[in-house]
Amino acid sequence: MFIRTLSSINRFSLLSILRTHSTTSNTTHFGFDEVPENEKQTRVNEVFSSVADSYDLMNDIMSFGIHRIWKDHFIRIVRPDPQWNYIDVAGGTGDIAFRYLKELDRYYPSAASSIPLSESPITPTHTYIADSLEQTRIRPTSKCVVADINPNMLAVGKQRSIDNNLHNRIQWIETNAEELPFEDEQFDVYTIAFGIRNCTHIDRVVSEAYRVLKKGGRFLCLEFSQVNNTLLRYFYDQYSKTFIPPMGQIIANDWKSYQYLIESIRVFPKQKEFAELIRSCNFRYVNYENLSFGVSAIHSGYKL
């Protein structure tokens, strides 16, 4: 009934309802706080700059360590193909991209040697002022691209890629998920894991995903979500509020960042609402799968 009712609302009304990170006064959610839209990204950058070195540990605390199983399952759903152009957004530490490449190598052992390696971007011999954003857009130089707005997160990912001997197979891009620098229809698969809830305008992120995907391309999002069992939700909420921020203080000397991360989960759209937002951005065959009773969820949609 909820979905049928929403489907009768025009697209602009729907986005107005579901744009939970925006209000008519140009403010947005930063956890439970309302802040000016132009301040949120700065605050989010400060959070992730603070937790970059302990990002996996942070996810361990927030998910009881189960996030590693969720991510493995996520990549199995992707089913990597050596012919695809793949992009992982908000993936600065490389966690999802590394899994993608390792899964690719598992089923296509010759892929590592047959796929062109990442190249350095061509530096123009002269500068000019572009007449439009389209003129400044680029094409990927690798079949595996990691994009993130936070340079500290990217620095962690780049070092990890060297440690895992994957550095020459990934193109790293520092960019905003709401305005990707790539030309239209460049990628076969777009993933974003535990990142979209930190973006200022969720609908713009999904619309950008649609723009850069090829026809037939797939959007996949793994994100903390809403527990669908009342009793379990109560216990998880109590755990989140009373245990995670103090652990952040003990482990990383950072209470506020962990407090924000918990609050950001609470204000993120519920599973059905987020599925409707994805549909409103023109994706088709949209569905979602709850993981661990809805502690997290995988949303999927196709560009047709």
According to CATH, the fold-level topology is Rossmann fold
Can you identify the CATH superfamily?
Answer: Vaccinia Virus protein VP39
Mean of all residue-level pLDDT scores = 82
Largest sheet: 7 strands, mixed
Per DSSP E runs of 2 or more residues, the count of β-strands stands at 9
Q: What percentage of residues falls in helices of 4 or more residues?
A: 40-55%
* Outline: globular
- Helix-strand category: alpha/beta
Low-confidence stretches at least 5 residues in length (pLDDT < 50)? 1-24, 119-130
Instruction: Please indicate the count of domains.
Output: 1
Give me the side-by-side strand order of the main sheet: 5-4-3-6-7-9-8
Strand content: 15-25%
Please tell me how large the radius of gyration is.
Answer: 19 Å
Q: What are the secondary-structure elements, in order, as H or E?
A: HHEEHHHEHHEHEEHEHHHEE
Per DSSP, the total helix count is 12
Q: How does this model look, in words?
A:
By secondary structure, this protein is α/β, with parallel strands linked by helices. 45% of the residues lie in helices and 18% in strands. It has one domain (28-105, 140-303): 3-Layer(aba) Sandwich (Rossmann fold). The strands form two sheets. Strands 5-4-3-6-7-9-8 form a seven-stranded mixed beta sheet, with helices on both faces. A two-stranded antiparallel ribbon has the order 1-2. Helix 2 (11-18) packs antiparallel against helix 12 (271-280), helix 3 (37-51) crosses helix 11 (255-266) and helix 10 (230-252) runs antiparallel to helix 11 (255-266). It starts with a helix and ends with a strand. The model is unreliable at 1-24 and 119-130 (pLDDT under 50). This is 2-methoxy-6-polyprenyl-1,4-benzoquinol methylase, mitochondrial. One of its GO terms (cellular component) is extrinsic component of mitochondrial inner membrane. Component of a multi-subunit COQ enzyme complex, composed of at least COQ3, COQ4, COQ5, COQ6, COQ7 and COQ9. Interacts with PYURF; the interaction is direct, stabilizes COQ5 protein and associates PYURF with COQ enzyme complex.
